[in-house]
């Protein structure tokens, strides 16, 4: 059966209001005659009729769909599981802890046709790791996306991680540093990651001096983990880069490290 849009239904109903028969309007716009008869009697469209049964409101779904397409434009579309996880978080924020159904993602995509589903495919490692002309050209294409261009340079940030190794082998001491700077030249205080179970007070001088305001944490091996990446977001980036106006967007540019693509981080 030919699929029809809500706009075609509206056009057919307008014809009927102007004296066209339901049969003729049905043929002209490809909308089943019983549907037109039902709508002329005041019945709601199926989507609106079941909207109250949907777990997320129409506005929440629209916002989620906008986020999905924005991530896709940036080359990092969420998986079906990540999409479902985000929906769960929205519900939990409203006190709804019931799980979503197995077919929720299918329904969400059907209700939001702007979202397209693609099978994941492997990418040539040279495209990911090599600084080729193609890779650099693609990166600048992302910067040309209109809603990225609209972000002020002062609100565009690049973060990266660096490691310092003292000694050699298994006995070497690793310290990682997450640093971040804006396109306007403003650097925010880094997060320093030590190797250990906890950060020890005796590691620091009584007066931090130039290191005052830096943040410190620890991991088992001194490297960044999924948890420390989120910790950096919550303790450093989000509070210290808050724009003067809540309507201003921020851009964070980072590499594809696994800790940057978790549901919690995204």
From TrEMBL:
SUPFAM superfamilies registered for this protein in UniProt: Homeodomain-like (SSF46689)
The chain positions of domain HTH CENPB-type read 48-118
Q: What is its main location?
A: nucleus
Signal sequence region:
none
Molecular function (GO) terms for this protein are: DNA binding
- UniProt keyword DNA-binding present: yes
- Which terms are listed as keywords in the entry? DNA-binding, Nucleus
Keyword Plastid tagged: no
An annotated GO cellular component of this protein is: nucleus
Q: Where in the cell is it found?
A: Nucleus
What InterPro entries is this protein classified in?
CenT-Element_Derived, DDE_SF_endonuclease_dom, Homeodomain-like_sf, HTH_CenpB_DNA-bd_dom, HTH_Psq
Q: What is this protein called?
A: Transposase
């Amino acid at each position: 059966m030919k699929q029809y849009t809500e706009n075609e239904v509206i056009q057919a109903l307008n014809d009927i209001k102007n004296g066209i028969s339901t049969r003729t309007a049905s043929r002209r716009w490809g909308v089943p005659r019983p549907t037109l008869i039902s709508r002329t009697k005041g019945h709601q469209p199926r989507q609106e009729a079941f909207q109250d049964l949907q777990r997320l409101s129409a506005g929440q779904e629209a916002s989620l769909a906008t986020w999905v397409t924005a991530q896709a434009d940036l080359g990092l579309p969420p998986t079906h599981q990540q999409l479902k996880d985000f929906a769960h978080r929205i519900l939990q924020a409203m006190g709804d802890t019931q799980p979503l159904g197995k077919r929720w993602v299918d329904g969400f995509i059907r209700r939001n046709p702007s979202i397209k589903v693609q099978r994941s495919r492997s990418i040539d490692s040279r495209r990911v790791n090599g600084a080729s002309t193609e890779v650099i050209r693609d990166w600048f294409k992302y910067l040309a996306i209109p809603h990225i261009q609209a972000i002020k340079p002062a609100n565009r940030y690049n973060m990266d991680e660096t490691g310092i190794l003292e000694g050699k082998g298994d006995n070497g001491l690793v310290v990682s540093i997450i640093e971040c700077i804006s396109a306007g030249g403003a650097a925010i205080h880094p997060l320093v990651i030590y190797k250990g179970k906890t950060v020890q007070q005796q590691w620091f001088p009584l007066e931090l001096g130039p290191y005052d305001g830096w943040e410190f944490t620890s991991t088992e091996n001194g490297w960044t983990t999924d948890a420390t990446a989120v910790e950096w977001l919550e303790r450093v980036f989000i509070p210290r880069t808050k724009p003067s106006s809540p309507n201003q967007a921020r851009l964070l540019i980072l590499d594809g490290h696994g800790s940057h693509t978790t549901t919690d981080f995204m």
